[in-house]
Amino acid sequence: MTATPRSWTPERPIGGTSVQDRRPMLRLLRLASPLAPRLALAVLFGVLAAGSAIGLTATSAWLISRAAQHPPVLYLTVAIVAVRTFGIARGVFRYVERLAGHDAAFGVLTRLRVLAYQRLERLAPAALPVLRAGDLVGRFVADVDAALDVLVRVVLPYIVAALIGAATAGFLGALLPGAGVVLAAGLLLVAVGVPAIQHTVARRADRRTAPLRGELSAATVDLLRGLPDLVAFGAARRRLAALAETDDRLRRATARSAAGVGLGAGLVALATGACVWAGLALGAGAVRAGTLNGVVLAVVVLTPFAVFDTVSGLPAAAAQLATARAALGRVFSLLDQPDPVSEPAAPAPLPADHRLELIGVSARWPGGPDVLHDVDLALSPGRRVAVVGPSGSGKSTLAAVLVRFLDPSAGKVTLGGVDTRDLAGDDVRTVVGLLTDDARLFDTTIRDNLRIGDRGADDERLRAALADARLLEWVDSLPNGLDTMVGEQGSRLSGGQRRRLALARALLAEFPILILDEPTEHLDEETADALTADLLAVTRGRTTVLITHRLTGLAEVDEIVVVDGGRIVQRGGHDDLVAVDGTYRRMCQRHS
């Protein structure tokens, strides 16, 4: 387990993303295949519910028409019972259909969400900086939820409409062939033609809705996270204006999509009226010709109302499908991101020897060129090394390679003589821990934040770790002590306190090898110097790599490695490096 969540921005941005999946619907249906029996049950009861509604209308039409002839009441008894039966059955079948359909859809949603979470865990942190935090949340929440909409509002309604439409057209065709043909044509227009026209009108809007929603989410999260700095530099109004412009684009896209749905609803009403009038005209002619009973004419005329009521939601379902396809495409494009590291099929056992060594290592972030070039570094147990260099020189990439967030593109990294590519990544990270400058604190107590390092730690061990990190006196001064809430991302603590609490958590995990990546970044000089001194004191005797651009206190480490342009350009002790003209001396001069 690492000391912090796996997230930071590499020196070079990730250049490539996977191609949008062009068949997200097929992939979703394959994902739903284990739940096919539940979906089939939902379809069955959906057909029964729709059939009951149509049967209610047709039977009622016959009953009213026949009752107008004033026959003996016994002639109407069966129809009366049928009307009651259909009326009750429609509600019961609809309830069971919704229950079965949503049960199956939530099962698929659960599978997709678990897949997305597992994929994010595999991609973090190397393959995620290409996505902004808000957009990532949008893909994981709203876009994944599109699977539920597709199954409940698109797939099931279309299957039910197809089956019940064909059955009803056949029924009317048996009574009056012309009316059956007209109804079939009207249903085909509503199911296929209207969605096609609707999609033509709002095609661009449907495609843009999901990305714009993700963009709006990302912009909102960025605004909230950076609000203090934006206000301080007078940039809040510009960011709010940009956010409002994104919201306006989303509103316009949604309005265009809604206009397409409205057009579809109008065309459905026209198709319904056309089928009713055509049935009336054909039926009246058949009655005059003596080929159709006058009582049955009411069935021919009124049944299309019930059928079109069943299929009237198909244009809206088609619009939902267009939006959901874009959303699911974004989800599957995330799932299709290549692994930043390859896990062995049969991992080698973790060696007892914790000597970590880089031999001719080059490394790159996914989609980019090599950032590290031919790096050699040996970390024997207890050795402390400082890695320094200008920003963008490859220091954080080196940290990612050491903790196996990245695999080398050339050379190899060995742990106890075993290539780390032959070891499970999680096994490597039980030995090599990472503490970064953005170590995340969760909105819970000090105790719970510390126990991320060791869930079984008692208060005595927690207090010992806080003492090593020079925080125990401060924690003891708090009214609630270890039960003090730290706020979202440690907002109730100072910058130095957040870093020291993260350090205590890392110490509690007792990693044999500890990587400290810019632990004093964004701190004032006095706090940074004090924290560096404490870090070097508390890690004495532990294999440690201190990655920093600050040069204070580096005389305490065993070796200083100077990285520039992704290569090791100097190495040695502080006094030796200052004595020669090179990158380290120039850094010292600038620091002074």
Task: Write structural notes for this entry.
Helices cover 61% and strands 10% of the residues. It has 17 helices and 10 strands. The chain has helices at residues 24-32, 36-67, 77-123, 133-175, 177-232, 236-289, 294-311, 314-335, 395-402, 425-431, 446-450, 459-468, 472-476, 495-509, 525-538, 574-579, 583-591, and strands at residues 356-364, 370-379, 384-388, 410-415, 418-419, 432-436, 513-517, 543-548, 559-564, 567-572. The strands form 2 sheets. It has a 6-stranded mixed beta sheet, with helices on both faces. Strands 2-1-4-5 form a 4-stranded antiparallel beta sheet, with helices on one face.
* Strand order in space, largest sheet: 6-7-8-3-9-10
Give the radius of gyration: 34 Å
Rounded average pLDDT: 84
Which architecture name of the largest domain does CATH use?
A: Up-down Bundle
Number of self-contained structural domains: 2
Biggest sheet layout: 6 strands, mixed
The number of helices is 17
Name the beta content range.
Answer: 5-15%
- Find the CATH topology of the largest domain: ABC transporter transmembrane region fold
Pick out the low-confidence regions: 1-21
The general outline is: elongated
By CATH reckoning, the class of the largest domain would read Mainly Alpha
Helix content: 55-70%
- How far is it from the N-terminal to the C-terminal residue, by CA? 38 Å
SS elements, strand count: 10
SSE string, helices as H and strands as E: HHHHHHHHEEEHEEHEHHHHEHEEEHH
| CATH H level, superfamily name of the largest domain | ABC transporter type 1, transmembrane domain
Structural class by helix and strand composition: alpha/beta
